[in-house]
Design a protein that fits this description.
CATH class of the largest domain: Alpha Beta
Radius of gyration: 20 Å
Strand content: 15-25%
Largest sheet: 5 strands, parallel
Helix content: 40-55%
Number of helices: 13
Shape: globular
């Protein structure tokens, strides 16, 4: 069943040159552990949401407050929750929420996301939400943290300690929890019946094995793409729908550890100004996956192909993350990293990993300290 912890086969120990790379490779097990600790049989969060479950029925919307990679995860979670549960979601910067937002009251749940549970801006957002009468749900990797203790309810990721400063396994376990939370709400609000739930859980449970199968190939392909772009000084990352969140995360990871400019944006916005930047010196990294069973996903993919054709016509260089077996993408890109097929809402968990590896190899080639990037700390505990 989806909630059972599998017996992992012993693999030969590998020597990793950096903690960041080790933690990238630890993601399949971190996701397995997160699922196993939060699902029992076909019951999602059997105890974690008891304090808030009655109030859930009265929520009219959800507000997500987070910073950095956690906010990018929240942007993906927004689409998961809206598509599966039909509940409106707003995503706020935690640092802005306390200063500006006044639209959270007792009819809204505020979901705060933080790896450490000690992020000052996110703690402040949670406290402000509670002052306004809102119930709060925390997603954190630390059960004994300020944000977990003060939340109405807490959902724990089981990524184990993340020693490198850049977020890797914390973001993929957050995405896993957000998918589970979306399924929980879909059942709670009557958008999904009991027979449909096990199939969704099984699809999530299949992700770690697919990730393990691909990690070595992704590592090699990402290293090759990094070598080809070694001297580049800026990148654009493009994605549509839920993949826009992952474009932002890929760009953030590159900025954090390579100290160069990278911007993540919706693919359809390229021709509304940023296309002025496109030339042979500014590579475009495009999230170009699709769920063949989802007409909306296929349409978004076709539109992304059109954007890449435009980039090529302007002598631009493109790197794509696409699905295995996709031949169309080859004619409009310079390099492709392939990920396995998956449902639209689960593809982000797969496609973010090659982007982590690309950022890692690009930074290493440029002599950067990937585990301890300059000016960064693991948890921003002061505002």
């Amino acid at each position: 069943m989806a909630g059972e912890l599998p017996n992992s086969e012993l693999r030969p120990a590998r020597a990793f040159p950096h903690r960041m790379l080790r933690e990238i490779y630890e993601q399949p097990q971190a996701i397995r552990e997160t699922i196993a600790r939060n699902v029992t049989g076909d019951v999602i969060f059997p105890a974690a949401l008891q304090e808030i479950e009655t109030a859930l029925a009265g929520f009219k919307k959800i507000i997500i407050a987070a910073s950095g990679s956690s906010r990018n995860g929240g942007l993906a979670g927004e689409i998961m929750i809206e598509d599966l549960a039909g509940i409106p979601v707003d995503v706020e910067y935690a640092s802005e929420y306390s200063c500006r937002s006044t639209h959270a009251g007792a009819d809204a749940a505020v979901l705060v996301i933080t790896q450490s549970g000690e992020t000052a801006d996110t703690i402040a957002a949670q406290r402000e939400a509670q002052n306004r009468g809102a119930k709060t749900i925390a997603i954190s990797n630390a059960a004994d943290s300020t944000i977990s203790r003060e939340a109405t309810a807490t959902l724990i990721t089981y990524a184990a300690p993340e020693r490198a400063v850049p977020a890797t396994k914390s973001i993929t376990t957050q995405l896993s929890i957000l998918y589970l939370f979306s399924l929980f709400l879909a059942r709670k609000f009557g958008r999904m019946d009991s027979p449909a739930l096990p199939a969704h859980l099984d699809l999530l449970a299949a992700i770690p094995e697919e990730m393990e199968r691909c990690l070595d190939a992704w590592d090699a392909q990402a290293a090759g793409a990094a070598r080809a772009a070694e001297k580049v000084k800026a990148f654009l990352y493009l994605g549509r729908g839920i993949h826009y969140a992952i474009a932002r995360e890929g760009a953030l990871k590159l900025k954090e550890i390579s100290y160069l400019q990278a911007e993540g944006m919706p693919a359809g916005e390229l021709r509304h100004g940023p296309n002025a930047l496109v030339d042979e010196d500014l590579p475009v990294v495009a999230l170009s996956t699709r769920d063949a069973s989802d007409p909306g996903s296929v349409l978004r993919y076709q539109k992304t192909l059109g954007v890449l054709e435009y980039v090529k016509s302007r002598r631009g260089k493109a790197i794509a993350i696409a699905n295995e077996g996709d031949r169309e993408i080859l004619s409009v890109t310079d390099r492709v990293i392939f990920v396995p097929p998956a449902p639209e809402l689960l593809l982000p968990i797969l496609e973010v990993v090659p982007l982590q590896l690309f950022a890692y190899h690009f930074a290493v080639l440029n002599g950067c300290d990937v585990d301890h990037p300059r000016n960064l700390v693991k948890a921003v505990i002061t505002e």
